[in-house]
Structure formats: C-alpha cells, structure tokens
Amino acid sequence: MKAAVYTRHGPPEVVRVTEVPKPVPKDNEVLVRIHAATVCAADWRMRKAEPSLIRLMNGLLRPAKARILGIEFSGIVESVGSAVTAVSAGAEVFGTPGFQFGAHAEYICLPEDGVLAPKPANMPLEEAAAVLFGGFTALHFLRKANIQAGQNVLIYGASGSVGVFAVQLAKYFGARVTGVCSASNLELVRSLGAAEVLDYARQDFSSAGPVYDMVFDAAGYSGFSRSLRALKRGGYYVTVGGSGRILALLAGILRSAWTNATGVAKVFGGVAAGNREDQLFLKGLIDAGQLRTVIDRRYPLERIAEAHHYVEAGHKRGHVIILMDQPAT
Length: 329
What we know:
Elements: E1 2-6, E2 15-19, E3 29-39, H1 41-48, H2 54-58, E4 73-80, E5 92-95, E6 107-111, E7 116-118, H3 125-128, H4 132-144, E8 152-156, H5 163-172, E9 176-181, H6 186-191, E10 196-199, E11 212-217, H7 224-230, E12 231-239, H8 246-262, E13 265-269, H9 276-287, E14 295-300, H10 304-312, E15 319-323
Parallel strand pairs: 8-9, 8-11, 9-10, 11-12, 12-13, 14-15
Antiparallel strand pairs: 1-2, 3-4, 3-6, 3-15, 4-5, 5-7
Helix pairs in contact: 4-5
C-alpha cells in the first residue's frame, strides 16, 4: 500500500510517499481502507520534532516509532478479525489511532474497542475525517476549565482546527462566545456561533479589561500578560499550541505556576487524547445538526509535503484534508 513516510526529522520534504506492507488485522482488529485524513499541528510538530521533547518520545536522531503520521481519518471497513463482532465489512467509519499516528496511508488497523465509530449520517466521509483532533482538544479543555452557561468566553484562533470546534462547543454549553481571528475569517467564525468577532490585527481583545471568565487560546499566540488582563480574577486561561521551544515552555510553566499559586487565574494547556465516549458525544452533536467542521484545502497523498508546508505556515482555515484517491482542489 502507499503511505507517507518520514525517516528523519526536518522540513516537509522529509515526508515521502512510498510502498509499505499492507497491515493485516489481528483477531480483535478492524482493517479500514482510508478515504481521507488530515494534516494538523500534531503532524508537523512530530515531523519537525518541535518541541524537542518529541525526540525523547519518538527517537533522538530519527523517528523510531511513528514513521507514518496522521492522527484522524475516515474510511470504509475492508475486513475484520475473527473476534470482532460489532463492526462489519463495508461500514463507513471515522476514528483516530491517537498519538500512535498512522493515518497517512491507504490502510490502517484499529482495535474493535478503539476510537472508531460509524461516521455521522449527515456528514460526508471527507468531512468526517476532520472532527476528532480539533473536537477532542476543544472538548477536553472546555470541560477542564469547567465551562458554564452564561459565561463570557474568548476563543483566540477561532478559525483554526481547534478553534472552530471550541467556538461551537462553548456556545453549545451556553457560553457567550467572542472569537478572535483574521479579517478574512470574521464571517466564518460568526457563522459558527460567536456573538462577537474581533480582527486580531486591528483590535486588542484585552482593551476592555477583565471581562472574560475564560480565555481559550487555540493558536498559542494570545499572549500571557494580555490574556490575564482580559480575565476576571480566578478565571481560566487555556493555551493550546505555542512555539514549542524549550525555553518558552519552561517560562510558560513558571508563569503558570505563579499565576495559579496567587489565585490570579487558573492556567493550563497541553495536548488532549479523547476516547470513544467523547467521540460518540461529538457524533451525536453532528447528527443533531449542532456541530460541523470546516475544510480549507484538499490534497492528494502525493502532495502531502505541500500540505505540511501550508499547515505549518499557520494560516489555514479549519482543516486540511488528504484524499487517498482523488485530485487536489
């Protein structure tokens, strides 16, 4: 089968499409022929080894474990192991291998009890591929920040792959949402449910003072001091993303510890791995017409390095899709 493989850390060009053995499902596994996957921040950070701590997890000099990236996908079940009872060949599914990666390939195997479910009935396969990374991240951190109905929540980076879900989920939980994004994405974010939308290049969200119960930075660029100025005392500052540099990470840890200790705000961030229960929760919202995804660009597998370039530049709108058997648009 074809797969996008990287054998060393570096720029997008280290990812190359090559032939690898097609996986064979174990007794408890499901073999899925992948229709679509995404390229997201988790992919380019693993490929680039940013932050450098990634090298401790996936190989100091070269990737030793996850050589095929891709953290979310949709596709059709091709076959199942002898012990599988809940999934049948021909089913349209969406899922994630989590931080094992492996979705930038024509086929993938997942355990029957893994994060794999029938795709939402009212969503095409390619859109179903672009739900779990952003949806899990937004859902996890909104819940961790104890989101409540009636709160004022600011979503910075509201048009990115995490931001588009953070806006919709915050509104679902009853919050009044202010989105911050580029001028070209103002109408998109408004259509997702934001009550107010700010152009980050022209408007300072902190100028009104401490008016927000939560600042959710889905891009890593809201600024620590500025975000604290915008928060009510004891509010939540959630940050996802950031530069990934070791010194910046250490400085962030120290600032967060001081802020938490003094009670000025509750600060946290990081990565989130969802589970089957979270997947079914998101699927239910999609089926009910309360949640949607946003697709920016589509690339064939052969142009995956180009997709990495685009995503790493940081200006995408929603998600970038890799289609296994279709041309780019």
